[in-house]
Amino acid sequence: QVYGETPSAKPEIHFRVTSTDEHALNGAAVRKQVTVFFSKDETGPRMHLLVYSPSKSRARVPVFLGLNFSGNETVNADPGIDLPEIWIKGQKTKAEEKARGSSAQQWQVEKIISRGFALATVYCGDIEPDFAGGMEFGVRKLFLQPGQTKSADGQWGTLGAWAWGLSRAADYLETDRSIDSKKIILIGHSRLGKATLWSAAQDARFRVVISNESGVGGASLYRAATGETIEHLNTAFPHWFCVNFHQYTGHPDRVPVDGNLLLALIAPRPLYVASADQDHTSDPPAEFLSSVEASKVYELLGKRGLGTDKMPPLNQPIMTGTVAYHVRDGKHDVTAFDWDQYLAFAKLQLR
Ligand code: GCU
């Protein structure tokens, strides 16, 4: 009814490490680039995983895994990142040099490495490009019946496809000897935060889960009806959810589930929900309320949830239980402040 059904059949995926540099980021990191092929046919859909791990570490390290919006080359100015093909206005285009590091602020790679964590990231458009009609160019196509061109009512949408891609990244990480694959911390911002939560709900290998301003369709509540509307989601992004979800336009009260239940599906694994006060689309009070409600399930399972139903002041994280929350000042973004909290939470939870 919401994201649609994820197919259970697993295609024959395989991996190829295409480059390894032991001296990336001025010697601080090992950079690996890995192609994950989603079928035997290497010309079919595939994704490119970029993995940095601390070069000093002899032991396997915990890893942050997250999808990126605009291409792997945007996460750091590192000239060794392969320039990928990206999607601009529905066209596949070679990324430009000048895009290197354009989202570096949102990724904080050096900081992650210096704290002893690895980072793995994938461009979401590799799994499926983000436009109506993108199914033609992504993994969902592999699961269509012969002759089928449109999704059936309950079949997965793009968010479901992205969520699935994260699980395929975990398949690779389980084979990488520099990574402690029992300690994968899944992180996602905004639409990719929605996909992250849905992925974590389905795949228990994700040990810690971070929702950065995932908003409505993610941690937030349809029923709060004070942030983004279902109508907006379904008209601006008709491909994200399944066809069935379109019947809820104008009827948030009729959706059979809500964000709190999505979060509860992650219990009892550690969960961090974060908002930004100017991000009205995501509706911070609803993201908070949803975390409070999900905490009840954590408590049922013997964990401490958020431990309060009072929204904290700006920039004051609540991190005393298995569910953490903060609302920082500022706009819809991922900042160094956000990462400081996530790194601290991951460290606490993975002790
Ligand atoms: C839009 C969309 C949100 C989404 C956001 C993003 O604002 O309406 O649902 O979270 O884009 O992905 O940045």
How many strands appear in the DSSP assignment?
11
Q: Major sheet: size, sense and barrel closure? A: 9 strands, mixed
Order of helices and strands: EEEEEEHHEHHEHEHHEHEH
Kindly name the structural category.
alpha/beta
User: In whole angstroms, how far apart are the ends?
Assistant: 38 Å
The largest sheet has its strands arranged as 1-2-3-7-4-8-9-10-11
Rg is 19 Å
Segments where pLDDT lies below 50 for 5+ residues?
A: none
Strand content: 15-25%
Average pLDDT, rounded to a whole number, is 97
Note the total helix count: 9
Overall outline: globular
- Molecules bound to protein: alpha-D-glucopyranuronic acid
Overall helicity? 10-25%
